[in-house]
Each structure stands twice: as structure tokens, then as C-alpha cells.
Amino acid sequence: xxxxxxxxxxxxxxxxxxxxxxxxxxxxxxxxxxxxxxxxxxxxxxxxxxxxxxxxxxxxxxxxxxxxxxxxxxxxxxxxxxxxxxxxxxxxxxxxxxxxxxxxxxxxxxxxxxxxxxxxxxxxxxxxxxxxxxxxxxxxxxxxxxxxxxxxxxxxxxxxxxxxxxxxxxxxxxxxxxxxxxxxxxxxxxxxxxxxxxxxxxxxxxxxxxxxxxxxxxxxxx
Length: 222
Ligand code: DX5
Ligand code: ZN
Description:
Blueprint: E1 4-7, H1 17-26, E2 32-37, H2 49-58, E3 64-69, H3 74-82, E4 87-90, H4 98-107, E5 111-116, E6 134-138, H5 154-167, E7 172-176, H6 184-190, E8 194-197, H7 199-202, H8 207-219
Parallel strand pairs: 1-8, 2-3, 3-4, 4-5, 5-6, 6-7, 7-8
Helix pairs in contact: 2-3, 5-6
The structure holds D-xylitol-5-phosphate and zinc ion.
């Protein structure tokens, strides 16, 4: 399995965002996760497309995974695509028409993903398999970094992996929230292949060491 680790910039020092983004990639991160919160869909406010564009101008070439926790989503999809996003996910509850939003992401040549809250079932995927490049399973409720992993979601990760298998499509399965060196093994065993981690990486003094420790846990189950 080609496992990917995606440091979440939500826990970075925003005054030094470019440097921190470069540092976590240098330390072995595969892609950068950028959390976009609007103080409406979730009770927190973070960054807009300008910041994504600034990261690109700063020289960040790693893939940028934009996680939209906003309502509505369509205008921001276009703006983030133009600002240099590589892939974009949104929550189906936040779009009036998920199929159209997914199409819009691909229209801009980005990979399209659906983000699934802990209490949301996988039913929303049923007629969208042709439009999805990745599924992002929330393992905490969206809105804040540093929350505790919700173990009940493991069963949903397993189900999602089974459904991906049945679909026969090349769809990645990401997990987001409370992922650290203690929880990564369980989510990987359940079928996740992309691991988004904010506080677990940025709240440590040695990013390389932390990412290496996470990869070591993954090696065990290869
Ligand atoms: C939460 C965000 C996450 C957040 C995860 O709503 O979607 O990406 O950064 O933070 P940690 O890894 O600290 O749980
Ligand atoms: Zn996120």
C-alpha cells in the first residue's frame, strides 16, 4: 500500500506558514492539508484562497489538499483551484448539489473528494462513484485541531474500504482528526491510506522524527 502522510497546516504557526509548510515536506510529509473554515458551516475561521496562492508564490510545490468546511462551496472551489490547490474536498451537507460541486472540482483539473462527518453515513457516495477521486473520513467533528479520535468511526472506514473495492475504482481513503502515532495503526488496518495529522506533527519539536515514527507504525501492517 502506498501510504501518504498529510500534515495539516491548521496546527502550524500561521505567522511562519511558508517556512512551516516547507519544513513538514522536508521532514517527509507527502502533501499539505489546508483547512478552510468559514465560521458558518463550522464554528471557526481560518484562511481563504489568498493563503493558498501565497504558499505557491513562496515556492511550495508539494500537493495542496484543500479541505473546505464552508457553506456554500462552489465559488471557493473555483477560487482555490485558481490559487493552486491540487485536490479539494467538501462536506456533502454544505453543497446543494454534490454531483455538480464534484464536477466543478474536476473541471478545474483538481482531484475531487467528499468529506464525511462522524455522524454522516456513506450513503451519499452511492451514485457518485464516477465523480470521486478520494474520500475523507472525519475521525473528529470538523472545526478544530487537537481533538480526540472517535473510535466508532473505524467501522465506517472498513465499510468505505469495502465499497471502494467493490467500485473497482482508484479512490484514495483519507482520515482526518486525532491521527497520531497511537491511532495511525488502527485506521490503516481499517483501510485508510492517507493520514492527515495536525497537532501530532506540529506540536512536536522534531517533525522528521514524528513522521518517521508514524511511518514505522505503517510498515508493520504492510
Ligand atoms: C479539523 C480539521 C483537521 C485538523 C486535524 O476540523 O479538518 O484537518 O487539522 O487536527 P488534528 O490532527 O490535530 O486532530
Ligand atoms: Zn481537515
